[in-house]
Amino acid sequence: xxxxxxxxxxxxxxxxxxxxxxxxxDDAKTGMFQCYKILGTIDDLCKAKTKDKIYLGIGSVGDxxxxxLIYAKLKRADLIVGPLIFPSDICHGxxxxxxxxxxLNSQIxxxxxxxxxxxxxxxxxxxxxxxxxxxxxxxxSTTVIQGLTIGKNSVIGAGSLILKxxxxxxxxxxxxxx
Length: 178
Fold this sequence. Notes:
Elements: E1 2-4, H1 8-15, E2 23-25, E3 32-33, E4 36-37, H2 42-48, E5 54-56, H3 64-76, E6 84-85, E7 89-90, E8 95-96, E9 101-102, E10 107-108, E11 113-114, E12 119-120, E13 125-126, E14 131-132, E15 137-138, E16 143-144, E17 149-150, E18 155-156, E19 161-162, E20 171-172, E21 175-176
Parallel strand pairs: 1-2, 1-5, 6-9, 7-10, 8-11, 9-12, 10-13, 11-14, 12-15, 13-16, 14-17, 15-18, 16-19, 18-20, 19-21
Antiparallel strand pairs: 3-4
């Protein structure tokens, strides 16, 4: 497994994976991360042309722009970047886009679609048959009621309750009734 970024999320990833085959790349740090050698920069990884799946350890709220820029660079180099899913409940028929992050203890119910480059913070609940379009952020403990759509590039504040569809490019907090 290859992890890009040596920050707090990388520590979380290490807490639930097999540690024997882990390799790190980071533009800002050199030397060691935990007990693992940092093998080089993101550009070095792009030149390596590995066929291993890559995980981005920089998925926190403040780093979404950076994560998306690195993701685009890796895609241009034809490298495979998988979604990052922390232990959560994900039901049958759920589709998750590339470069998305699903926070700890989230629930995604049946037949939902999560677009690429989305971030679900911890404890998000998405009821069945919902669509979360690309580049969305859902804050901690957000709940999306069944059958709704969150439009692309939308930001949903922590603790929000979504009762109606959210148009693209919208910032929402609290109880959303459209």
